[in-house]
Amino acid sequence: MTRYSAFTVFREGLRGQKGWDKAWRSPVPKPAYDVVIIGAGGHGLATAYYLAKNHGIKDVAVIEKGWLGGGNTGRNTTVIRSNYFYPESAALYDFSVRLYENLSRELNYNVMFSQRGMVVTAHSEPEMEMAARQVNAMRLNGVDAEFLDRDQVRKLAPLLNYGPDMRYPIHGGVFQPRAGTGRHDAVAWGFARAADAQGVDIIQNCQVLELLTEGGRCVGVRTSQGEIRASAIGATVAGHSSVIADMAQVDLPITSYALQAFVSEPLKPVLDTVVLCPPFGTYISQSDKGGLVIGGGLDRVPSYGQRGNLPMQEAVLAGLVEMMPALASVKLLRHWAGIVDVTPDSSPIIGPSGLEGLYLNCGWGTGGFKAIPAGGYLFAHLLATGHHHDLSRPFDPVRFTTGHLIDEGAASGIAH
Amino acid sequence: MQIFPCPFCGPRNETEFHFAGELGKVRPDTGKEVNARDWATYLYAQRNEKGLVREVWLHLTCSELFVMERDSLTMDVRASKSLRGDAL
Ligand SMILES: Cc1cc2nc3c(=O)[nH]c(=O)nc-3n(C[C@H](O)[C@H](O)[C@H](O)COP(=O)(O)OP(=O)(O)OC[C@H]3O[C@@H](n4cnc5c(N)ncnc54)[C@H](O)[C@@H]3O)c2cc1C
Ligand SMILES: [Zn+2]
């Protein structure tokens, strides 16, 4: 593997770019591995990386039906933050933000994590009270948070509508300075390259069709490229988690929905933070290329149809025009959807599946990009040791039976 | 916009409809002791099939619940029927 550095860029510039290695191999699957991971999104690739790095388990295959990072990891709006309410969530997501802070160096790959901060606006006095509660909860959990008045929001995001005609005038908001955006593909590619360098086989164009079971235990997978056996199998397939659960004949509390995003034509810099306006259900940031990256809420119809559609487009863009009227005439370049795995409490599921040998990392729904380093780290711990890390234990699926839900949907009004 | 058929009002815009849940979930018989596992299954487990699904929908404008059969991948609607009679 060529190490990426300013020096290698310079050297290759002089050598006609002939000295670069492939970022990862395209191996033929072996008949058996220690660990097989289904799904080469960010979570699957990060899991493989941390299995090798933290636990010395390098006999690992990541099996992907399409191309690596082609699921939600390559389709999301890249917001990274830890402004959650409950201590369990704050601990999980802030651990992830801390891993992101060092990730480019760790992977020797620029994931372009830009801590430009995120503002969540409040639009009435009762909302200001909830915002103050949110800030206090975050600080108690050791997460950075600032309570902003209207003028402070205006300084950070002058593009928002402060006019008298705004339907829900801005009163203030919550700001997390360490939040920001990253480069989604780079996160997948960086983990893939670093995992491959440690000996992990990433097998693309290989769909898991069936689970192999012996004596009530999952012992491998049947794929479009043949059977592959393993001592532990981890599924990180996001919106397709119920499909795998069905193969395992276990129940999952997940509903799959399309979540859409939009990118505009490139503009000169107009916005240097991330803004979410909850009453409009729309959030926005500007990428380094100048495109406005716009997202909103879930579709209303459960779906596996991985494509955009009009009703939600209308809702999100109507919200955007109300939030930032100056953008009304900007043109969209692209519009797409990913299939996200939504749980009843808007918190992820990490734990044993109910079928021995098969473990799940799913339920990240609309917000699992920010959690990729932590999700991989904790899932690797579970696969390697058979036991939860303290940070993942509260997210075990047993919570749906014991009633210990971590209802971030209600507590922090999950938008993303 | 996609058009959904209400068995009572005919074809209408999808935004008039609300997804109520999967068809065929039966509330545990609370006349007997119900264990936590059965409650969890009833409250939270979803079949969430890729492909043909049968679901209960609400047409918001006429407030009728009905059964819709559709394909969750292609989004084709196959049938919609009143919840009365033998729909279950
Ligand atoms: C439009 C949109 C915007 C979003 N915005 C944000 C955001 O701003 N911030 C944030 O934190 N999160 C966001 N998310 C959520 C985030 O993208 C996901 O939670 C995260 O990427 C999930 O990663 P993953 O690795 O679990 O899944 P994925 O990246 O979806 O990877 C799963 C992989 O499994 C593969 N697979 C499925 N079935 C099989 C099979 N049978 N055999 C082999 N392979 C299989 C798929 O092909 C896929 O590549 C957004 C999502 C969407 C769709
Ligand atoms: Zn009707």
TrEMBL record, chain A:
Organism: Litoreibacter ascidiaceicola
Compartment annotation: Cytoplasm
InterPro entries, alphabetized: FAD-dep_OxRdtase (IPR006076), FAD/NAD-bd_sf (IPR036188), Rhodanese-like_dom (IPR001763), SoxB (IPR006278)
Record Gene3D superfamilies: D-Amino Acid Oxidase, subunit A, domain 2, FAD/NAD(P)-binding domain
A Pfam family the protein falls into: DAO
EC number: 1.5.3.24
Any GO BP: tetrahydrofolate metabolic process
Protein name (Swiss-Prot/TrEMBL): Sarcosine oxidase subunit beta
GO cellular component terms, A-Z: cytoplasm
Predominant subcellular localization, coarse grouping: cytoplasm
Entry annotated with the keyword Transferase: no
Keyword annotations from UniProtKB, A to Z: Cytoplasm, FAD, Flavoprotein, FMN, Nucleotide-binding, Oxidoreductase
GO molecular function: nucleotide binding; sarcosine oxidase activity
Chain ranges of the Rhodanese domain: 35-79
Family membership noted in the UniProt record: Belongs to the SoxB family.
Reactions catalysed, as given in the entry: sarcosine + O2 + H2O = formaldehyde + glycine + H2O2; sarcosine + (6S)-5,6,7,8-tetrahydrofolate + O2 = (6R)-5,10-methylene-5,6,7,8-tetrahydrofolate + glycine + H2O2
Required co-factors: FMN; FAD
Keyword Iron-sulfur tagged: no
UniProtKB/TrEMBL annotation, chain B:
GO biological process, one term: tetrahydrofolate metabolic process
Source superkingdom: Bacteria
Molecular-function annotations in GO: sarcosine oxidase activity
A Pfam family it matches: SoxD
Protein name listed in UniProt: Sarcosine oxidase subunit delta
